[in-house]
Structures are given as C-alpha cells and as structure tokens.
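Hi V.,

Quick status before I head out on leave. The structure for the redesign project is tokenized and pasted below; the design run finished overnight.
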C-alpha cells in the first residue's frame, strides 16, 4: 500500500515537472509573455527594477566621461585601460550598468527574487571593487536594473534613463558598446544610447569592440568588424605591461564571472556614427528579427522619454498584437 502511494506521488511529481518545463520553454520563446510575467511577479515594474541603484543622476556634477555598459565587467574587458588613462588625467568618470547582471538562461523572470537580488549584490560589489582600483568612487557607479538577457523588452525605458543621464550630467564624452553580434544586451545598449544621442544631437560618442562571432572574448589584438556603415578611424589602445597587470587585477575582482583569464584582452575604440544603428542592428544582432521587431517598432513609434503613452496607442497595439497591447497597458501603469 505504502509503495503504491509512493509510486503515485512520484508519478504526480514527474507530471508536474514535465508540465512546468513545457510552460517555461513556451514562455521563454515569447518576450511579450515574459514581460507580463516579470511585471506580475513584481520583479520589473519600471522604475522599480530588481537591482536598480540610481540615487539620482548626480545633478550638476562634473562628468568628463560617461560609460554605458550592459553588464558589470564589460567596462573592464572593453575599456579598462582606456578608463585608467582618463582617470590618471584627472577626469571625472561615471559608469552606468544597464542590466542587473543576474541572468543566465533567461532566469530573470522565474528565479526567486531574493536569489536574483543576491546575485546583483555580488556583481555590483565586484564592479565597485574593480573600479576603485582606478579611483572611480562607488558614488559614480550606477545600475539601472534591467533584466540581464532581457534588454529587448525595455528599450523605451532604457532610453528614458539614458536621456536623463545625458541631460543631468552633460558629459564631455560618452562610451558605449558597438553593435557587433556578440551579446544581445551589448548590441541593444549600443542601439538605444546611439538612438538617444542622435535624437538630442549629442555627438561625442565613442564605442568599443569586445567580442563577436569572429573575435572571441579575450582576444589581445581586437579589431572592429569591417563594415561599410562607418568611416570612423579605429583607435587601437597599446597596453603597457603595467597597464596589463592593472587590468588583470580589475578583472580578478569579477570573481563570479571568472574573467581574469581574459586579462590579455585588447582595447580599440572609435567615434560612433549615430545615424547607422538600424543598419548595424539588422546586419549583426544575433537576436532573431521576429523576436526583436515588435520591440524596435514600438521603440521607434513611442520613445520612452517622450512619455506619449495613451489609450489610443493601447488600442492600436491591441489591434496588432495582444501582447503588444498588454505592453502598452503595462507601460501606462508603470510610468
Ligand atoms: Zn556583457
């Protein structure tokens, strides 16, 4: 009798796991649905985002250099020595991480909130430690808290934040990823920052290359992908032995990511052309067009920082796609 009961319990458990894995894999394919789940679970109700650390945008503080990086560690991998040189020059540097760095396998929407928060705390602390080595104080390090691996779902909100930073800090120079098909969050961070800069006529934007399908992470002699889209001159950073060992020390701080092994990673920057984002995204981004297109369309029609979200746009969205309609509704509630 007892063994029959146990067998039944095991079967029920197996069915539950089977159903759960099917539900998860179904949701995983649908960003609109994930966004609804994230909202419903209270993880991401803009501006309340998991791991947001943005104690206003330090109004009127002198900012020579403003960096937008998708994840804590991209700043060091792609730009560590460049930032060291700015710092030694006495320039004021601020770093903005777009995502909370909690992701792997789209877990942002189903991982327990307290676990995700723990992950964020670790990554944010690692970033603070790494940047302190080149004298960037923790007050100058921000996190917007968008889900790691899910920036495509929040393009309008990211643009609103980026716009605010640019307006409040009026930086001398901006750095951002280039669009190169290495990681979706990198490409979309680049896309949004360049879109906002283009819209407000801010021109002093520089981009860095990190990794892409033909250039693995850690490559010492990094190059931008050859492209017809830009004629900007590529500036290769010649890293000295001393700078290399500092870069290694900074990467070592990001222990949870095991990136110290990439200490030979080279650096190259160039001025960004802020009129070519759409072509670059179409050409390089690895996120499927089908998945990305509704968000890009919505982003272009309705820039977050213009805050024009109306009942009419809800109805228009609803007519086109139920989930886009829901997204409009979520945006209306959460702004
Ligand atoms: Zn990254």
């Amino acid at each position: 009798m007892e063994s029959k009961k146990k067998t039944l319990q095991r079967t029920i458990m197996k069915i539950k796991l089977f159903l759960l894995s099917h539900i998860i894999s179904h949701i995983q394919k649908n960003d609109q649905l994930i966004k609804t789940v994230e909202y419903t679970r209270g993880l991401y109700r803009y501006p309340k985002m998991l791991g947001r650390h943005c104690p206003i945008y330090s109004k009127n503080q002198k900012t020579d250099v403003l960096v937008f990086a998708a994840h804590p560690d991209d700043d060091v991998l792609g730009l560590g020595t460049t930032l060291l040189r700015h710092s030694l020059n006495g320039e004021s540097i601020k770093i903005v991480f777009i995502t909370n760095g909690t992701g792997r396998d789209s877990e942002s929407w189903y991982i327990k909130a307290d676990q995700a928060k723990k992950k964020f705390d670790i990554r944010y602390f690692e970033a603070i430690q790494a940047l302190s080595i080149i004298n960037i104080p923790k007050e100058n390090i921000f996190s917007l808290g968008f889900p790691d691996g899910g920036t495509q779902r929040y393009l309008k909100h990211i643009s609103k934040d980026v716009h605010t930073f640019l307006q409040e800090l009026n930086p001398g120079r901006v750095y951002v990823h280039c669009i190169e098909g290495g990681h979706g969050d990198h490409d979309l961070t680049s896309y949004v920052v360049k879109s906002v800069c283009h819209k407000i006529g801010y021109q002093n934007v520089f981009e860095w290359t990190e990794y892409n399908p033909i250039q693995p992470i850690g490559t010492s002699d990094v190059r931008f992908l050859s492209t017809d889209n830009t004629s900007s001159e590529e500036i290769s950073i010649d890293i000295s032995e001393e700078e290399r060992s500092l870069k290694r020390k900074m990467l070592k701080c990001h222990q949870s990511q095991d990136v110290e092994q990439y200490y030979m990673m080279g650096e190259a920057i160039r001025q960004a052309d802020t009129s070519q984002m759409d072509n670059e995204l179409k050409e390089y981004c690895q996120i499927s067009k089908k998945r990305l297109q509704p968000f890009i369309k919505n982003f272009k029609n309705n820039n977050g920082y213009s805050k024009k979200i109306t009942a009419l746009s809800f109805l228009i969205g609803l007519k086109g796609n139920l989930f886009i309609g829901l997204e409009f509704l979520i945006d209306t509630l959460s702004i």
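Above is the designed sequence. The CA atoms of residues 22 and 120 lie 28 Å apart.

G. will cover questions while I'm gone.

Best,
W.
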